[in-house]
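<backbone_tokenisation>
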Amino acid sequence: MDPEQNMNCHQALVGTVVSEEETERPTSEQLSENHHFSLLCQLLFLLDHVHLVMNTAHERSRQRDKKWIPLPGRYFQLIVHRGKEQSKRMDPFSVMAYNILAVFSVMQLGLIPTMAEGETTVFGAVGEQVILPCIDKSQNDGVTWKYNDLVVIQYQTQLLRGKTPFFNRSELNKQEMSKGNFSLILSQLRHSDAGKYVCGVGSRTFMVQLQVFEVTGSPSGYLLQGEKLMLTIQGPSSASTIWYDNHKYKVTAAQSRELKNGGRSLLIHQLSAEDSGTWTCHITSLSAKLDIPYKVLVIGFHHLNQETLYKAVNSTVSFSYSLSTHLQQIRELKYITGGLEWKSRADNKYLEKFNFTVTSKELPLFKQMANMQVTWKTSNHLEVKLPKVQFKDAGWYQCQLTVSRGRVEKAIHLVVMTVSADPVEPLSKWANVTLFCNLSIPVPPTAQLYWEHVNGTEKELNMLGCNEVTVKTQTVGLWRCSLQVENNVMTSIDYTVVKAAERNSCVWIWAGVGAGIVLLLLASLCTFIYTAQQQRRQRAEKMARARQDLIERRTCQCQCQLKNDYSDA
């Protein structure tokens, strides 16, 4: 081999190594050509060494006329000495030289085209389906897939399956085979399916490296709010891993989330209902990538931070408890108990208002309703309504659920406001009235409780740390007590102060109007009665006159008849 050819072969051998380190992976055709050329260069180096050995052997035997022939089973050296042929066993060194020459001759006769194509890496997830590519559009006659030198599936004129662990989980797409697509379909992947697969199509072979991954969670199954969850990716460690949460945001190290083992494990602290959903593990390498979803199911209440409701006396309040999941969809949960508890002060113990049970087939059954309107919307939303809130109803209302693994709960704080006056009677002239506004808890530092005269200028604020504000005034009209939290008015109550004189005049006016209406009705009634009596009297007189006239007519007729009778006689 001349120096230029030696340099070309050296560059080809080095190039095959450098191409694997490049960020962009070469195509299978380029890998095949580089692989073939490297093998040829290696064989040429061997041929040079063999040629050197043969020259040395020729120098040693230049005094004799020799012929070298290979014979079946054994190798002999045929020597022609003084016109006679003699056979002698060949030494091992000569046998090795001729073996190398025979291999080179065979490869020149057509073995090179059967060399394997470039290797392809494919990622798969446990339990899922994966496609191992094998495409040769120049062939459509048949294919043979092997795994660890075992035939997985073969198709020539009919489909044959080998005795492999995935005997019933491997398949070919016969419709695509006519187009040169001989890809192997593996279903229900297992970790044991990982390894090297070889696809033989005609004179070409394709190698596919299958890597199988799985995301596991500890603990598994459903979780409760407040628990920890460890997600771990199992599989080859050569691939890089990125985690995404249930909102498709990239997970980074935070107070409640911790990446371990170089990012292959994700620890989630203090699970909440908002963490329920599908988390994703994104696995990448230079030539393959894969997304593996993992469903996280957390049983808990949404908006776990304590809610505070501000209501006025005699108003309606609704407590809403929304669960993160439908209880009837969790097969592991066969029987659940729950209830609503109440306490008036933060340091008191909870007292049960009512309780209920949930089964996998029935809606909750409530007991001890305690004059509350309870509605179970679908199977994950509980609503409790108090029609008329009283000052004594203020406190903490906690809904709790108990399952086999533990208990979840959520509390809502109800703050009630009421107003009163002293004296309650209408305000007399030159008198004062004291207005009281009470809150069921001390006013928070970020809040204000105050009286103000509507459309006026008077205003009275409460003292810090107090739960009451009072105002002493002679001003009549509409007064309003309001609770303002962070510049937002949460609730308010109106109270009207009325003067006694104004109230008496109003009473006399309404009394006069009422008396007038009564007199008008009496006059109308008397008129109606009098008119009816007059009409009856007139009808009676007419009837009497009519009867008198009738009697007189009959008497006259009788007299006339008598006169006629006497005259005829």
About this structure: The CA atoms of residues 98 and 455 lie 118 Å apart. Helices lie at 3-21, 28-60, 92-111, 174-177, 500-568. The longest helix spans residues 500-568.
